[in-house]
Amino acid sequence: MIAQTTTALENARVKLLFSRPIAALAALLMAVPAQADALIDNVNGITLDEDGDVIHFTGLLMTTDGRITKLLGRKDKRPEKLDWRTDMHGKVMLPGFVDAHGHIMDLGFRSMELDLSDTHSLAEAQAKIAAYAEANPERTWILGGGWDQEKWGLGRFPTAAELDAVAGDRPVALTRIDSHAVWVNSAALKAAGITPATKAPPGGRIENGILTDAARLMIMQAVPQPLARERDLAFIQAQQMLLSKGITATADMRTTLDDWLVYRRVADKNLLRIRILSYADSIQTANRAAGGSPSPWLYDDKLKMGGVKLFADGALGSRGACLKAPYADAPKQSGQCLLTDAQLKNLMSRAAMDGFQVAVHAIGDKANAEALDAIEAVSDTYKGDRRWRIEHAQIVDPADLPRFGKGSIIASMQPIHALSDRTMAEARLGPGRLAGAYAWHSMLENKVPLAFGSDYPNDDFNPFHGWVAGFTRADGAGQPFGGWQPQERITREEAWRAYTMGGAYAAFAEDRIGRLAPGLWADFIIVDADPLLATASDLWNMQVEQTWVGGKMMWKRQ
Amino acid sequence: MIAQTTTALENARVKLLFSRPIAALAALLMAVPAQADALIDNVNGITLDEDGDVIHFTGLLMTTDGRITKLLGRKDKRPEKLDWRTDMHGKVMLPGFVDAHGHIMDLGFRSMELDLSDTHSLAEAQAKIAAYAEANPERTWILGGGWDQEKWGLGRFPTAAELDAVAGDRPVALTRIDSHAVWVNSAALKAAGITPATKAPPGGRIENGILTDAARLMIMQAVPQPLARERDLAFIQAQQMLLSKGITATADMRTTLDDWLVYRRVADKNLLRIRILSYADSIQTANRAAGGSPSPWLYDDKLKMGGVKLFADGALGSRGACLKAPYADAPKQSGQCLLTDAQLKNLMSRAAMDGFQVAVHAIGDKANAEALDAIEAVSDTYKGDRRWRIEHAQIVDPADLPRFGKGSIIASMQPIHALSDRTMAEARLGPGRLAGAYAWHSMLENKVPLAFGSDYPNDDFNPFHGWVAGFTRADGAGQPFGGWQPQERITREEAWRAYTMGGAYAAFAEDRIGRLAPGLWADFIIVDADPLLATASDLWNMQVEQTWVGGKMMWKRQ
User: Fold this and answer.
1) pTM score, two decimals?
2) Residues ≥6 apart with Cβ < 8 Å to B331
3) Does residue A179 share a domain with residue A249?
4) What ipTM was predicted for this assembly?
5) Per the CB < 8 Å rule, is A11 touching B273?
């Protein structure tokens, strides 16, 4: 029935009428570019070309709707006919960063919650809680986390009564730094229907306002779902935080239907300012959001539901990562692979059948091997440019590394994790199993397409930090000295490439974003120094002054 | 934080550069209309003006993106500078119809199901079921309805075995014409977990493949939810059906979140061809779809979530309509008002607080009175142009009629119902209570804003049928002779107005659609005769040749 319909221009009855005066005008108009131009001039422009090599330019010419038409060198003549121009006074212009793995809504919600990670005593925490409660009278629950009674020197857990003293009748639920316990007040216990007679579920404990492990859920289920407007606000907050660090596009690695609805609502109201490469939390969500195939690029390429996220295992810190051999620090445990081989292949097939890209979370070496097995198995059926992704690819058996390259499987890695995890990873794995851990140099050696991200809000999303971690395996202060497992360093340019072009390629977006070149969107940042000449320490501390997406300034340092 | 961001054009550093050659060109361009024009010429154009008076024209000038710029009379000079023109060879052009009350997805799904309403024997029905099963091998369940064992002359209900004989192992569920019973086969019983030992719930009966009333749900819950692509297909089907009858915009009067997702998916893929004025099935859905306020007009004004639908009572036929006095044909029943006064006011307040329009389903005179009570009560708080709607306003106590006018409350009525319901309505109400029944003339007398629709798929959505019913109170064959309750006839023009401008106004869309005038969208139909000169019978049978939405031909008779 679609064939029955037609646009007016296709209508066979339509006659094109070019009267003479129109033809004359048309000829004149031909001399003008079809799309008006804008120039951002006098920049110290640095980008990568399509081969990943560094190139320099001094002016960026774009259409007024934000697509790059030309990069200009110092000697290139500037067009006279311009709709507008901006002089950047010699500042450094770089392509915006693409974070290949993040959780937008989690970042937004966490940023709106109470953060106790910087408190050094119970009294200090209590004061902060009281202040937060007063400053946020509209919140029906006070949520937050980051507390650590060890750091407080308390020698015991805090109590419900100590929360009641400062938070009154409003329910409060504050997660411990390690996420394994939640500290609540009497109002929260009441809201959750927990009385002194309530028994904790197996694997959990309820004790004087502290609920551990399996018992935590009893509280979390009682927390009201956020309202649509609260979700929208959390998103706006996260978007602002990401833009302020120079991230112009981000994968969203477990988009729920409610998350998707937020992105739609915000974009419908013309408030979407960052590009979201969305990977659904399930095939059901992908289908509901996008239908029987990935969504088109929506809102001038600012939103696309392109794939599905699957989980092969858990995390290393909590010993949920699925390992081939037992944990060095828990010889009876090897973690747990969450899906059988058949389940993984079935889920992959269902996604791939509808043309959705598949991104598999795999931390442990066994989980990575199983993800590789499954990808290899289904690749026979689902051919073509599928760009199977493994998220984290954190601990890989060196014997499995070539399999990434052979299958052109994208390794979506988080360089900053190497710094946050290194002590823990050494404890969990022992010295003998670090050869394939956080091994981005080995990935490149094996010709693996590499994409960098941060896994925010679980780690620091400042891409300059990740960039430095990528080529130094150390932080901005040079710690650890010489870099952790320094054989896995890559070059500064390679790390930059993974954090820009790599993320774009990983989301089928390399023809739109990831570098500055004609035909791509003018997504760029203005920074205070040349990142290729800066010391690692200066690069770590680099400040973003402006962030532009699609030729529009979306954030500016005040 | 939004204040921190800015578009490039707003950027303080931007300098507008108007060099001399550009200025000269700009001056030249000023002489040309900013937006190129298209002409649909040589039409017998008839529309209503903003006062609802009939006007004629012979050419429609519009921008190439589909907005009307001018209606041209016979003597008006045609512009020479045109992007394209079409000659309609004198055919009649009318504004597209706006159906003020329909259910798009129900129409689509019903159209894809098996319809047994035209079968005259069990054997004929069995043959039709077998043919449908064979023609639709991909359907995991065979769903449909419309059967009537009385019409078949069967003298008993059909049985599961009689279905098994023709439908094999695939579950089948076929609803009786009155919706009070479902006929299933053994596979459906098995899928629903119903065995001979299963007891029917109170108010229901299970007997040899027939499940009545409350027992029906046991089957319906076992029917798998449609896949996203099945929903999309159902939508495309419904859209096509509506366009083919000249409906260019329709209210969707109980949009679920899944329905909303369909409209988004279809529109994202550029396949939305009709305008949808969406009223959510709940405040929750409204918030999830649109946020804390109505959505903007999306996709060139083709979709908007603007309101919420509430239910004050049920339907007259099943004696669910809430009456002030008992049913004439069931003296112990008065129907049931579904919400208390407090509930109705609370729901209205919640919707109105977020700026959503409220549309209350009210059939019986008591339900209408309660809806009016609630609207009058909340109007004190939620002032301004709220356009409270009562859907159906079917049986209204004549004493309550002036209250519609006083509150400028929209009566959203379905003229075709008067024809389908008249015998049943006389039985339910008796002769003494028809004064305020289907009383659109009285509504206009009381200066009530009137919007016409069809309540499809529960009734015939052909707007020409509704139009004729509106001014004749009879069908195309003139039955009943002289019209039913003819004192409630309105003029041909008034009925037309209610089916076009009335529906637009009822959805806050009168500045976009509902008639043909500069600034509004070019939503029009081409028909085979002048509807103002045609006999009622010819108007009833009028054929739509083309349907255009936003200046594009979206449907054409083959």
Assistant:
1) 0.88
2) none
3) no
4) 0.86
5) no
